From TrEMBL:
NCBIfam families: PRK07573.1, sdhA_Bsu. It comes from the Bacteria. It catalyses: a quinone + succinate = fumarate + a quinol. Keywords: Cell membrane, Electron transport, FAD, Flavoprotein, Membrane, Oxidoreductase, Transport. Residues 35-471 form the FAD-dependent oxidoreductase 2 FAD-binding domain. Its EC number is 1.3.5.1. This is succinate dehydrogenase. It holds the Pfam family FAD_binding_2. One of its GO terms (biological process) is anaerobic respiration. GO terms for molecular function: electron transfer activity; flavin adenine dinucleotide binding; succinate dehydrogenase (quinone) activity. Its main location: membrane.
Amino acid sequence: MKLDSKIPEGHISEKWTNYKDHLKLVAPNNRPKIDVIVVGTGLAGASAAASLGEMGYNVKAFCFQDSPRRAHSIAAQGGINAAKNYQNDGDSVYRLFYDTIKGGDYRAREANVHRLAEVSGNIIDQCVAQGVPFARDYGGLLDNRSFGGVQVQRTFYAAGQTGQQLLLGAYSALSRQIGLGRVQMYNRHEMLDIVKVDGKARGIIARNLLTGELERHSAHAVIIASGGYGNVYFLSTNAMGSNVTAAWKIHKKGAYFANPCYVQIHPTCIPVHGTNQSKLTLMSESLRNSGRIWVPKKKEDAEAIRAGKLKPTQIAEADRDYYLERRYPAFGNLVPRDVASRAAKERCDAGYGIEDNDTNEGVYLDFSSEIVSKGKQAAYAQGNHNPSDEEVIKLGKQWIEEKYGNLFQMYQKITDENPYETPMKIYPAVHYTMGGVWVDYNLQSTIPGCFVAGEANFSDHGANRLGASALMQGLADGYFVLPYTVSDYLANDIRTGKISTDLPEFAEAENSVKSQIDKFLSNNGSKSVDHFHKKLGHIMWNKVGMARNEQGLKEAIREIDELRKEFHNDVYVPGTANELNTELEKALRVADFMELGQLMAMDALQRKESAGGHFREEYQDSEGETLRDDENFSFVGAWEYQGDDINKETLHKEELNYEFIKIAARNYK
């Protein structure tokens, strides 16, 4: 199959407007005749389901949590980008577009990114109308702050809980449609397969996680908005239930999977504490607005800190290496996430790490300078032009608390250290996945009628996502893109009528799911699901993690292949199918992670360059920065499933043609 991205003609600033003006519509009287399934109820899924319900379609929404309010979007802390230029610092739609393309190391699709920048402002208006409590300045206007990879303030925020507030806004819109009967909500249900009829997506097989019952649900179109696949690494900042199953199931039914090797490592995570840890905790990137990142200049000081003989507050200013400010003076602590992460790894690999754990990996995020600076400003504003040091510190801490208080409280609860008094300890961790299901300009996969939104698709971030852009993409897809493109597709279905779940395709898909469940439950294995998931994560982090090389990737492909066989032969899943069985849920998800992990290593192996979050050690410049190969690798790598042997997957290439942006070396110095 030849990849057709369906990018419209015309100038980039007019593509989306002209395109949507000529899409087919479904009249209001015909929309109640049409069913749509939405899998996932995070920001992308909830906004899509609410929007389509409001339009009059019959929507079925599915989430494996007990409520859409528990979707992982709730964990996003720092903010959401929009090109409003409220700070009058030179922002524009074009600049947001350019920053996103550059931040993704010139590996994103140009037309999709510009559309994202265009609709970003509408998102803020929509959310304000919903009552989302964005931060405001003294005069009552919406406030903005900076995020990594940009030199303007365009990030709207609600303290350190922006994702939660945005999700509550989307959930309120969704709840209204549930109350009107336009959306049927299926909590504690997990999609385990997609059903195709005559080549089109026509429904799903879902498992009721409370009773174990397999259910058939039909629709005229299916939207997958199930998030990313970071938990393939076992330890990540994702919620423990986050998984790739919905996206992987459609991949196995014909949806191409694009750029799986593009994984984001977030620089401000609380370091790994021990081998029994089950997940990692993220500290918002917004903290890099006020915190300065450093390690000791002297190895003996780092060793003394690790041994507990020195405290960071005892290290003199002259003996601190603010390495991001040193290496990237133009952006300093606000370089993009991949750049900041690799810089931290380089310092720790060189022996300057400060955390007393198995790997000595950790750096400081220090707020002392900001406390003094903001304290002096606050004192001056109060008319005290000669404040004491104690007054400065007190006022500075109050300013920090107003801006980031819940984040500081969370850090102290986890680490039992007061970040107002001593610097936070941070280290990079797996966070977001830029890769995902391949979609065209309509957000439709290579399965007709199967659309993919938010983090589950590949389309907007290239090889690295800029901070505060995930919330932007999820809501843009759900509120402002899918209502147009899904309606265009559904215009041909107004005479189709109800789709029967008695069709043989539904029975075949259900039997396939049942067979896999029965196999796990009858397996006479000896090891837990987590045993295998941890082993997979160890391989992935060490060989397909922050840095990769040819030998390690080849070893990873072989080792995952062997681990996958061992998993299916020796995993033990207790309980039965017809009950709440969390171990069975995990087994089904880890089975998909095993296959995906192998494909990620294969994708990283074929991409013989470094770009964004994909860092091949063989391809770096003399200063350790990414070395792209635009002549040979300026493409989206979309993989086609060819059966159980993942090694046989076929790579298809969508060439990336930049008409309106000049490709250049990514420079933040």
